[in-house]
Each structure stands twice: as structure tokens, then as C-alpha cells.
Specification:
Bound molecules: iron/sulfur cluster
Shape: globular
CATH topology of the largest domain: Rossmann fold
Distance between the termini: 55 Å
Largest sheet: 6 strands, parallel
Number of strands: 19
Structural class: alpha/beta
Strand content: 15-25%
Number of domains: 4
Radius of gyration: 23 Å
Length: 457
Amino acid sequence: MSELKRFSIRTFGCQMNVHDTEKLSNLLYHAGYEAAGDESAADLLVINTCSVREKAENKLYSDLGRLREWKAEKPGRMIGVGGCVAQQEGQTILRRFDHVDLVFGTHNLLAVPAMLEGAAQGQSGVRIEESASQDRFDLPERHPAFEGRDTGHSFVTVMEGCDMFCSFCVVPKTRGREISRTAASIVAEVRNLVERGVSEITLLGQTVNAYGRHDTRRGVAEAAGTIPFGGLLTQLDAIEGLRRIRYTSPHPLFFDEVLLRAHGELESLCPHVHMPVQSGSDRVLEQMRRRYTRADYETIIKGLRVVRPDIVVTTDFIVGFPGETDEDFEQTLSLIESVGFVDSYSFKYSRRPHTKALELSAEEIAPEVASARLTALQDLQRRLTLDHHISRVGSRAEIRVEGESMHGPGQVRGRDLHHRVVNVPVGDVGAPGAGSYIEVDVVEATPHSLIGTPVTG
Ligand code: SF4
């Protein structure tokens, strides 16, 4: 084992990357490393990259350039690059930045401890081979180093990869083909987490509700150990001590009746769905190869509101997709109003390598037009978010405490069932620990969060 003992990880991108960082931290703890307070104290710095937008990729390259100095400050320091850009660029990163020691792809986390040993002997390496095996889900148990830092929440991977090939998206190239984990291993992991104090989980998958679909279609589900997604939720709901289940991100194409009903029946399934829609125009949705129409999306939301009237819906948008007209964009704005999204992530279209959108004959949207559309969309969204927050004032909410509020000591921050942030001044009552649940009365609405006071007595 090398003498390097302290690590730091910079994480970019989606929740899948956030969870990969947790998994990697766990592997590093088991390999004898500990978390560094900050990068200046670290011997190993890992950048967990995202390639969904060009900007993130460019930032990686400028960060790597600057890290040459960081590495030179202390002998023996190492730099690793993981995630989607690593998967996409592999050897090119090592060729371009000779101070990088290891590059590992999205299927190669388990190889990192051995790669570090090699790097300590001066052998820099690249591992980006794709794997179709379940082995990548076989991670060691959570290391005790996680205890005490927990907020009672954990991500749990149920499937990885994506076979949808939306025309703007590089993920099928960087995360590989869809593979679903066995239901038994998911249930076992969740039981284990609950025994260790986790009470809320978020099931993760690129198209999480497509879980098991290929096995079911091929008639091999039993042999493969998978079940339909709705059935998986039912099994997890039965685990005692598990209070909240969330999942992200579902694809409208796989939002079936069973999943819809689950929202009305399963006690621990939270009344919040984050389902990317991307555009409100059927013409653009077709060009994006999303395989649903605006009406399909609206039908799902109407169905959800029948079984769970208080459900909160959030989403993702891309504006300025090639060929998007003013009228298409108006359709997106009208969808925001008709669904009443409570929040959304929105971005300008970004050209990505290896994607079908590059072959479209439609004209690219001028950057200033795309920027103006993004501003208009975000202005509208801000108004709807605030409207929702105002509508909650006077109601009661249960929150899971995540820790100290960003507004400073004397306040804690938590999430309610609908995934809204609630800040709670606790004053003399004393701060409840991370992971605990408190009931609050919602007394104030702000654009980004709710403010609550603890219910006493
Ligand atoms: S469903 Fe589409 S946008 Fe989502 S990861 Fe797959 S290809 Fe990308």
C-alpha cells in the first residue's frame, strides 16, 4: 500500500455522479484512505466528471491544467479523473495531461484501489472498458467512516446505462447499455442501510422506471432476478423502518399503470416526481427522439393527481434545440403553466460529440436567442415556485433534518415529503440531529425555500 492516505473528490453533474463519489469514497476508506478536510490537505485528488454539457468538459480541462501546480507542491501527490468525460476521452486525457495518474470510466470504480497502487509505483493507467456484468454493483459494505456523517438518506442504484439514445444526449455513450440489478440485492442493500440508520432512500437509474424492462420483454426476468419497477417499490415499501422512498429519473415512456397506482397505495412513496420533459412542443420532442408527446406527458401527470392530489412535479428543460421556433418555445412555456411545475432545471442546448442531434439539418439557434428563452423560462418558473411556496404557508410539514441551515447557526435545514427545502429556526429548543424528523408549521415562503417553526407539545 502506498503512503498516500488522504483523498478529496470534486464531483460534477447528476445524482448518479454524486452516488459514484459516495461509492468511490467507500472503496477508498476500505483501501486505507481517509477524507481530507480540504484539497490542500489531500494526497489524492479525484475529479468525477460530467460530459452532458460542453461547458463542464471545458472546465475539466482548465482545472486539470491548474492542478499541475497543486501536484508539484507536495511529492507523491496523485490525480485521478473518473466519470463520463473519462469514459469518453480515456487515453487522450493522459496524453494531454501527463501529471494525471489514473483515468477510470463509469464501469471501473472497483479497479481504482489497484490502479492507485500501480500509480504509486509510477504506472499511470487508464481503465474504461464497459462491463455487462452485475459485478459492478458488488461494492463492499458502507465503511464505518460514513457513520456520523449520515443525514439518514442514501442513494441506491437499481439500474445503470441507457438505451434510449435521445438525440441530444451523450449518456448512452458514457454510461453504456442498460443493465438492471437483481431485486434481491437491492432489497438486501436497503435493509442493510435501514439497520444502519438510513430512513430515506432515492432509487437511481438513468431511466429508473425502465428497471428490468429488457428482462421482462425477453421473458428472462425470473432467471435475471428482476421484477417490474412497481413491484420493486412494493417490496421496498414493506421494509420496516424505511420511511421515505424516492426515485430519479423516470422516463415518461415507462410510466405504467402499476407505477401510477403505487403513488396512491404505498405509504412510504413520497408525493414528488422529478420527470424530465425537455420541451412542450411535439415537433421538438420528436427531433429530440423522446418518444412521447406533450399529451402523453400531461396524461401521466393528470393520472398522478387523481391518485395523489398533493403530488409535486418537477422537471428538466432544454431550450434552443436546433430548429426550435418561437412557437415551439411558447409551447414549452404553456406546458409549464398547464402542469404547474414546482421547480425545474433548465439549460441551453449544447452540442455533444457522438450524438444524433449533430446530424440534424435544422438551423442552430443563435446564442442570444437561446439565452433570452432561458431567461424567460426561468422567470416563469421562479413565479410558479414562489406561488407553490406561498400556497404552503399555514400548512404542517414533516421534515427530515439534513443539518445546519445555510442561513447560519440557530437554524436547521430539512426536506419535506415533497422535496422542498424547509429552514427551521430552532433557537433555545436546540438543533435536532441530522437524520431526525420534526414536524413544523410552515410560516413563511421564500423563492427558494419554506420557513417553518417546530410544532411543540
Ligand atoms: S433517456 Fe435520453 S436524456 Fe435520459 S440518459 Fe437516456 S438518452 Fe440521455
